[in-house]
Amino acid sequence: MSPDRLVYMANQIGAFFRSQGADKAVPGIAEHLKKFWEPRMRSAIIAHLDAGGEGLEPEVRAAVEALRPAK
Question: Which domain of life does the UniProt lineage start with (predicted)?
């Protein structure tokens, strides 16, 4: 799946969770991505973030950052 498509999908998820308030948006987005996205999709969106994250909304960017494996 192309990075543009992943960004679009992630931002759509972000739009839904933004309506629940800022304190719930980032954890809600991250949990959704963990539950419903395949590992390769999560890896691809993390790689996109590593490459600059063009197009990711701020809450989505923070949620993807939270998906990074602990170092």
Answer: Bacteria
